[in-house]
Amino acid sequence: MNNKLEKLVQNLFKERVIKSEIVKQVLLSVDRKQFVDESDKINAYEDYPLQIGFNATISAPHMHAYSLELLKDNLQNGVRALDIGSGSGYLCAAMFLMMKQQQSKVIGVEHVPELVEKSIKNLSLSYNKQLQDKQIQIIKGDGRLGFEQEGPYQAIHVGAAAETIPQKLLEQLDKGGRMVIPVGKGNQVFQVIDKDQNGKINIQNVLGVRYVPLTDLNKQLYN
Ligand code: SAH
User: Fold this and answer.
1) How far, in Å, CA of 72 to CA of 147, rounded?
2) Of 55, 62, 2, which is closest to residue 33 (Cα–Cα)?
3) In which order are the strands placed within the sheet that holds 153-158?
4) What is the average pLDDT across 137-151?
5) Residues with a known catalytic role
C-alpha cells in the first residue's frame, strides 16, 4: 500500500472534500505519481497543483476530488464522459474508474501536442488496455469545440477556465447531463451546469477557483 497517498486521501475525507466511498476508492486507485513530471515525483502526494510544462499544471488533488464528487452520479450512470484540457491525463483515468456501465468511454481533449503524447504515456503505465480498446482516448484539438463525434456526454469536466461557457460544450451535454467548469477571467467561479430532460439549462456557482485559462494555443505558450 502507498502510505503517502493514503494519508492524502484520508485528509481529504476528514476535510469532507471526499464525501463518498467511490471517490475515495478511485483516488486511492489512480497513482498521481504516474501523472507528474520526473522532477516532481517527490511532491506527487501533496495537495497542490504541479507544473507539467507548457504553462499547464496537474490540478491539486482536492480539486480532482471535488470535481469527481460533483460528477459522481453522472459518471456512475453514464456511458460517455468528456474531459476538456486533459493535461496530464489523471482525470481521464479517474473518471473512467468511476463509470460502471459496460462500454463506458472517456474522451480527453488537449491542445498541446506534447501533453497529448505525455498523457498517453502516463496512462499507458496502468491503463494500456483501456487505451487499446479506446475506452480512454486522448484527442488533440481545441477543447472549446468539444468532440462532437462521440457525444452527447452524460458528464463533462472542463479543466481550464473559460471566459464564457463554450456553446459547443453545452450542445454536446446530454439531457440529464452535468458539466463542471471554471468560468471567468482573473476571479473565476466553478460552475455546475445541469441540462434537464427538456433541454433546459440550470447553472449553480459553487466555489471561487484558480485555473489555467481555456484559450488559444499560442496565447497559452507565449503569454
Ligand atoms: N485536468 C488536468 C488539468 C490540466 S491544466 C490535469 O489535472 O492534469 C489545463 C489544461 O487545459 C492544460 O493542459 C492546457 O494545455 C489545456 N487547455 C487550455 N486551453 C485549451 C483549449 N482551448 N483546448 C484544449 N486544451 C486546452
Assistant:
1) 21
2) 2
3) 136-140, 105-110, 80-84, 153-158, 173-183, 188-195, 201-209
4) 98
5) 59
